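S., here's the first fold you wanted:
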Amino acid sequence: MGKRNSQRKNAAILDSDDTDSVSSSSTFRSDNVLVSGAEDVQLEKESILDQCLDALYEKRGSTREKALASIIEVFNRYLQHEFVEKNFATLLHQFLNSIKKGSAKEIALASHAIGLLALTTGPGDKAKEILEESVSPISQALKSLSETTKISSLLECLAIITFVGGEEAEETEKSMQIMWQVVHPKLSSNVVATKPSPVMITAVVSAWSFLLTTMDGWTLNSKSWQQSIYYFSTLLDKDDRSVRIAGGEALALIFEMGNLDKFCGEAKGSNDSSTIEGKNSQEFVHIQGLREKILNQVRNLSVEAGGKGSAKKDLNHQRNSFRDILELLEDGYSPDTSLKIGGELLSTTTWAQLIQLNFLKHFLGGGFVKHMQENEFLHDLFDFTPKSKLLLGTEGRISAIEKRLYKSPNSVLSKARTQFLNKQRTLSQDKNTGRFAVGLGEEEV
């Protein structure tokens, strides 16, 4: 996330000119915060947040935008558990008001702020409330497809709040359906069909895939997603590189889950695998053909030569991504990645984990490292223990371990999802054929 070079005094936070893009946020400088210890710093941060919260009631849109940008900056750099605990209802209410009534920029900022609010609270009643209260306003805002930046921010927000607060598969699938309608509207819809931009397509597919990582696969409504595999396949032929990569990663995730048949609708009309095999042999042949088509597309993209005006960095990113996807399709191996954070390694061993990591890293921007060091929800998600936590001993946040074990629904759900996914992959080896049987079950989230 971009940061300004200009330094600001507290009194000028809400009055200075704001020329940043929506993806940036005003920088919260600590020149007058470096006083006498951590308690004074915390009081100063809360004072600034109180000012920003008051400013969200102002009629002037630019004032609210500056307040939201400052809140985002503080939430990125410091986890504000106490402030959120005291002001949760007010924060959520004002953020949602901005989505309902604000400009495109204010909507984008408020969307990001709601996502940060969910990540700060972690799983539980508050996250569930955020999801329940936000889905309808976000869905309504997505129907006016005029600002790409606004749409991308709304999609990211919906993905984050569903990821944190969605406790039931139906809630997650509802959000996935809302996303899908942005680029694939129903024919019966009254919405005027407009051609989505590459940025919008990438945002939808990335957010959709991010939520798919939380689904066990077998609970998916096959009728809802029968066309998705074909759609992702078409994205591999698009001119925009980010669209191709997003489509490829979605396909990799579906293959890793062992659910290509589900997404192609092979099981339509029956849950009995023997009946399916007997009655749908023609469809089985069709799916095998689709698999071969996707394999050829992935193979070509993994060795694509640079075209005119092609950035070398982007081209290398595409090649590396599709080489990893090709290895999954041909040999059943998911990429192993590692990232050093504060001296400790954060590792991923599945496409699902990698997609989660990349999405959260993009959403948090400059706040990613801070959240990975201090956010208990992210520690749970990636099974990551930072050095700072080990050094705390029995002081401060050690009780958070108990929270993870006894209070966080996500901790239980995450482990259950992993166990189910491992079992599912094992079953996939019997169900799928040839090199597309990708049921590796040893990875852990």
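And the second, which I think is the more interesting of the pair:
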Amino acid sequence: MDQEVVELREYAKSLKEDPTASIDEVAMLDADFFQQTSRSLVRKLDITLMPIIWLLYMFNYLDRNNISQAKLNHFERDLGLKGNQFNTAVSILNVGYMIMQLPSNMILTQVRPSLYIPFWVCVWSCISASTAAARNNTHLVVIRFLLGIAEAPFFPGVFYLLSCWYTRKELALRTAVLYSGLILATAFSGLIAAGVFAGLDGAHRLAGWRWLFLIEGAASFCSGVVAIFILPDFPERQTGSASWLLTPEERMVAVERMRRDRVSVEEGNKSVWYGLKLAIIDYRTWVFVVMLIANHTAYGFNYFYPSIVKGFGLGSTTVTLILTSPPYLLAALCCFAFAYSSDRRGERGFHMSVPMTTAAVGFIISAATLSVPVRYFASFLYICGCFSANAMVFSWASATLSQTPEKRAAATAIINLLSQLGNIWSPYFFRPQDATRYLMAMLLMMAFALLSVMMCLIMKWSLRRANKKILAEYEGRDEVPVLFML
């Protein structure tokens, strides 16, 4: 090994061992060594952190969304559901989700994510499995409400954790990888349900939908236990998997990378309440809130897609469940393509507005025709469009609202919390009397998709103005400013 690199490595170790040394001194290290260590750090995160949170997110959505498959297996009949009671069961989860989300993300900045996140994974797994014991609508509503509370800490928590380890230019692709867990969970949930219903329906006098909740809840619980040993904590801490996975140099570089990546650094009070204040007074937080509410409303079809496909009359329940998978598999590929392009080009706004425009076209086609093949094709458009855009929102918001870690945590939680309003009201778009075409729902989701496009363009305009001001402030100075990503 080159002697200079050896000396730099020893210097980095001495910095870590010296409690009086500033973490910013790592910036004095050789640039090549910094980049080499940074690449090593990212590679280790990609093969440990990303797979486990991808798996957890897949189970997060499986446990939340399996009610839509259960609907095709006498679920409503067995529980005596009538009218809009199924819609309420879908919607009530998001009420619990909203209640818990912001407090959870504020707590997360003060605790160990490697313990906090797996704890909630195990809790929601048990609650989801308990759906198998439900006997009436009241049982179902209570279980779904508690499931929302237990699932709330996960997504904003793991996204905040990702934003503490990955830079803005790295985050979109990793967010798409994470989001593909949701998409593939939706894709494979139909296949899993088809297998369970075909092989276990009536086994030991239990309906197939009860087996579905039990099996997926047990698998989710096991993944939560495994996560305890693989998740890292924050870069500044020597706990979690970082204690055995990363070298001292890599931990220092992790901290320095994030310091360099911020548009600006707020000094002073670093409390979670100060971070909450910064997030609330920033108007861009609220533009992102409206954007994501519109996005979530636009993909309100998700819980009802098996019923939509069932209405096409293409075959048995097994055939219907199998046919729900292809659009989501294509959506996963589209997510990766848009995220890769977004990271390469350093652009977010058009990479969100184009997919949402495509989704709006899909909704228009679904509302305008009775042709089954055309409507099935249109579902590819709105599924790919909605999911590709949603994979981009949080990476854009995190990069824009990252002046302090506390602000980023609070802003992420606020955006994700209030976006659940879209998930609360969108199930009621799908009125039982409108089955199977759901014309009103398609028109409303089209309108919200276009609202999302408008918010993207407003945000892009706002950030372009902000970048011009930053460049004007740095004019004539040697220092290169960090700009907002458009």
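Why I say that: The longest helix spans residues 31-70. Residues 42-473 form a domain with the Growth Hormone; Chain: A; fold (CATH 1.20.1250.20).

Talk tomorrow,
H.
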